[in-house]
Amino acid sequence: MNIGSMKTYIIICGFADVVAGGPIYYANKIRYMEQQGWQVVVIPTNKGEKVFIHGMEKYLGPYVPFILDNPNEYNKKQREQLVDYLESFVPEDRGETIIETGTDYTNYWGEALAERIRAKHIIVFLDEQNSRVTEKVIDFYKFKYARHELACITKPVMQNLFKGYMSLELNECYALRCACTNTLDDYEHKITSLIPKGDYNIGYIGRLEKPFFPTIVEGFINFCKKNDKEKITIVFFGGAFEEKTVDALKDKFKLLSNVQIFITGYLFPLPIAALRKMDVFVSGAGSASVAAKAGVLSIHIDMLSYNPSGIMLDYEYLNYAKCPYGNTVYDYLDWVLIRREPNLPLPLEVNYKKDWDFVCECFEEHLKFIELSSSEPAYYNLSQLGISSKQKMKRFFRTILGLKWYNYLRGNQLYLFIWSFIQRFKSSK
């Protein structure tokens, strides 16, 4: 890359009204790329009122309301109009340009924009589960994989992404570390003084909608029921998109008189003093590493099986202490808090002050990955993306009504009524 020329890095992502690994990762990526001399452009995917992650405030504003739609749900003319809107975020003076997307819905629009402005488009999947990647769209991901323009957060995640469609050995998979664990800071926060010291203090870090979260909650409840003579404090360091999710969580514990729960809501950065009031954490993905960095025993949940991987013994997710009595969340809590055997591992050393060095190390790998990608420009024909019969119906209505009237009727749910009527008519035949 020519350091002296203009270079632009475009990220299509959501970040408003939430604290999660994705927005933290993107904030880190922006800071790093700017330090490397890149002009960074963010195209927001959600409408928001508040930004929790420092550095993202300047990107709050116009967003892409159609991002969840498959581009093939629109006719050619309408797709061009929507790509026009995406292009309006891009400066004319951009030079060498790279677009990064990270979800199974932003990827297609990223490809469309890349083709329009002749940019390179890199997909770095942030989620372990990508349910919208089906046989209807898998050819798109095979295309990006072949061009070395697709990576996942771990090699097993990529292997699982193509499972049933393409057989990959782990050494054929591409993985990039998406650093988002620099979330701790040593500062005073009122939540620290509000957390009581129970006989056992148990913590969780992360959003309350994570797919493995019900497994963790079930393990907490089982432990509390079997130790009903003890006072137990459970702190959920995280929030949810909808209040009903928080209410449902509270309902699960309301009959347990020996349990006091705290739900902090979105909190960034996390005060290390509050985390250190926990005896043990149970979390998944990068959140498990955050707990370990605070110097507290951290039980890691595998993102594909939802079972405990073990107690973290390093920050590379390579070594774990396995519970000798079983492999459920309850078994691990019983091992750590009740049995308290001499062979239990000690907490890892408090380690968060050099987090930015680790972040930079991860992103150096990202740039090397991009350098190895195909040098010949080529883009997937998005009209070949498979869509469902419901999506075809949406395209039909959009074509007949036009985007303005379709969006108006969609807001009034009329098209859903028409769709359900058609389905009932078909089933009655």
Quickly list its features.
single chain, alpha/beta, globular, 5-stranded parallel beta sheet, 7-stranded mixed beta sheet, 429 residues
Helices and strands, with pairings:
Blueprint lengths: L6 E7 L7 H15 L3 E6 L31 H12 L8 E6 L4 H12 L2 E5 L13 H9 L3 E2 L3 H7 L22 E2 L4 H5 L5 E6 L7 H14 L5 E6 L5 H11 L5 E5 L6 E2 H4 L4 E5 H9 L3 E5 L6 E5 L7 E2 L7 H11 L15 H17 L17 H23 L2 H15 L1
Parallel strand pairs: 1-2, 1-3, 3-4, 4-5, 6-10, 7-8, 7-11, 8-9, 11-12
Antiparallel strand pairs: 12-13, 13-14
Helix pairs in contact: 7-11, 13-14
Quick one: how many beta strands? 14
Mean pLDDT: 91
The unreliable regions are none
Helix run count = 14
Class from secondary-structure proportions: alpha/beta
The value of Rg in angstroms is 23 Å
Q: State the share of residues found in helices, binned by percent.
A: 25-40%
- SSE arrangement, N to C: EHEHEHEHEHEHEHEHEEHEHEEEHHHH
Report the sheet-strand fraction: 5-15%
C-alpha end-to-end distance: 62 Å
Shape: globular
Characterise the protein shown here:
This protein is of the alpha/beta class and about 425 residues long. About 40% of the residues lie in helices and about 15% in strands. Helix 3 (about 105-115) links the parallel strand 3 and strand 4 (about 120-125). Helix 13 packs antiparallel against helix 14 (about 415-429). The longest helix has 23 residues, at about 390-410. The model has no long low-confidence stretch (mean pLDDT about 90).
Quick take:
The chain is 38% helix and 15% strand. It has 429 residues and is of the alpha/beta class.
